[in-house]
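Schema walk-through. Below, the input block comes first and the output block second. Nothing else is stored per chain. Lengths vary across the set, and this one has 156 residues.
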Amino acid sequence: MDQQKSAPPPAAPYHPQVETPWSTGLCDCCQDASNCCITCWCPCITFGQISEIVDQGSSSCATNGALYCLLAYFTGCGCLFSCIYRSKMRRQYMLQDNACGDLCTHFCCESCALCQEYRELKHRGFDMSLGWRENMERRGHGGVQVAPTAPYGMTR
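--- output ---
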């Protein structure tokens, strides 16, 4: 018997999300000299500010800054904590990865990596001194996270 196999239905078109480049380079620290100095002398402050924005307010600047400080003090490698946030940030904003990877970038150039992340969030409209809640209030969201919308509504 000759059975014809039906061809599978055509797959939906695949539209990969394109990664965008960082707004500044890793070594462009001099673009924000005050942040560069703060990060050089006390990276826990810059890291705390970055982490609060990346976590969308679910963790505080002070808590993450203190954890970073403790980890750096006891292990000498605060980069173990900060590289996780670089990865989160890259996924949130579809930022390009570099050849070294996030851990290597933070391990070799911790201050430069933190400064680049700080500048990227500023470039995206965040006032880093305010924290998540006040940034959302200024944007008109009242400190509440706005859920993303589906392009064509929800269907079953």
